[in-house]
Each structure stands twice: as C-alpha cells, then as structure tokens.
Design brief:
Elements lengths: L6 H17 L2 H7 L7 H7 L10 H14 L5 H15 L3 H6 L5 E4 L14 E6 L6 E6 L3 E5 L4 E3 L9 E5 L7 E3 L2 H36 L1 E2 L2 E2 L4 H29 L5 H27 L10 H13 L4 H13 L1
Length: 330
Amino acid sequence: MDFSLSEDQELLRDTARSLLANECPTTLLRDHMTDPSVADPLTAQLNEFVGLAGGDLTDLALFAEELGYVAAPGPFFANAAMFAPLLAAIGSELLDDVLEGTTTGTVAMAGSDGSWRVNGEARKTFVAEADRVEWIAVVGEGPTVRLTQGLPSRLIERVDTTRRLFDVDTSGASGETYEIDPDALTGAIESATVALSAEMVGTARRMFEMALQYAKERIQFDVPIGSFQAVQHKLADMSLALERATSAVQYAAMTLTEQDSDRHRATHVAKAAAGAAITRAAKDGIQIHGGIGFTWEHDLHLFIRRAYGSETWMGTTGYHHDRLADLIIT
C-alpha cells in the first residue's frame, strides 16, 4: 500500500509552506500578542483555503500541519476544522458560504470542566476566536446545535497567545436550532481533534528543527554541542516521537475520511501521540538551547506556548489515553 503524497497534495503542502513563510513570520506572532487585528491580512489569504474543509480530511490535515509549523494565529482553524464539519453534520446551508470564504464561525461546546462533551451548561468554555468570527455554533443537550451571533464573551488569559480562547455566555442565544445525530456530532468532534493533532505535529517539527539547527551551530569546548551523546539522544528521541505522531495523525485522517470502523480509536491515538511529541519537543528543545532558550528575544517560547496550549485543548494526552482504555475495556 502506497502512503506517499499525491502530486496535488505535494502542491498543496508546498503552496502552504511558501505562503506561510512569507505571511506569518515570528514578528507577526509577537505583534499579535497586543493587537489581534495584525493577523487579519493573513486570515484573508487563508480563507481562500477554507474549501479544504469540504474535501478529504487528509488534505486539511496536511494544511493544518503547516499552520502549526508557524503557529499561525487567527480564526482559520476554528472556522475550517471545527465550524465547517459541524455545519456539514447538520446540513446547514451556511456551509456553502463558509467554504467560499464569505463567512466565518466557531464552536461553543465545552462546559465548565473543559471537556468536549454534550452538556446543558449556559457558559461555554475554550471557544476559539469568539470575537473574530460572525457565527457561533452552540452545542447543547439533545444533542442540538444552535447557530447564533453576538453572544457575550470574555477572553481567557492563557500561555498560548496565538490562539485566543473565550468563555461565552449562551443563555441569551437565539437563532435556528438543529437536532444532530450523536454519531454525526462525534464525527465532527473527531475531525477537529485530528486536525488539531496535525497542527501539533507541525509545531513539534518546528521546535525539533530549531533544536537541531542550534545543536549544529552552538560551539562548546571547541566542538558543536550536537557532537555530545546526551544531546544526540535527546534529538533522536524527539525525532522518534515526531515520526510516531505524524504516522498516527495521517492514519487517523484516512480512517475518518473513509469512515473506517477504527476511526474512534485512531483519533484518540493521534491526539495522544501528538501531545507526547509536542511536549517532548518543547522540553528537550529548551534544554538543548540552554540559557538562550529562556529569553524573550529568542523565538522558541512562541512555539512552546502553542505546544502546551494545544496539548491541553480538546483533551490532554492523559484524557485520550483514558478514552482508549474505555474502548479497549468495553
């Protein structure tokens, strides 16, 4: 079986890399900390790729990996990887506008405990980019999905400044309400989880490459620190974790695209593997960089912030290990 990328997928990956290298430098991430609007030109360009949400998840995952590599800010992920699959699940006509890039939205589902499970709570937590989108899809008991606008929101202070998350009060939500099949809702959540895992792989790859390059350049005792066995072992472990996560994410994306019976297990494996890879890349990466890695001026912390923010969002590594255990035991 051939798992190599098709010519179209290689073109998509290369196009994404070129675009993001030019339009999302680390200076943008720093400016975004104080002024989120600086990412609007980037978002406008990324909206041309929202149509990926209407195709195979494998393609969206490839694109998401490149977004993670640069820790791209803005509402693209919430719109394409979360909002669009939910609109598809309920058969909303609004999906056409999203795929055409003419409207944007996000999803409000997690309750006070932060878990992405159906609940009846009015206060929804960890809602991505709630103030930068036009629509909010509120998931409630039933399960139901209500498409609404203009809900009160409060920015949550987090270590990750590139992805802005909000508490949203949905008690006054109005708008059309749809009943949704529980399996369809699960599929939409799993699709978003795998896309996030792909993003995490990209961020882990960025930190690994930064550490590898630094190990080649930093001279200690008249030799590059990359010649020291302890540093080599850390780089090897980072690389192995990254390869495992990459394979797990690609497999999960394929199972969801094909609606394979293994898709539920594969989703949990993907998020757990991506979480393990990204935290190892963060920990070992900063140790390889040494003192300079702790400074504000060095860019490493921008990706460490994204690493820990993403690892905790939509279920930690431990959470997904527990869900795997539930599947195995039952």
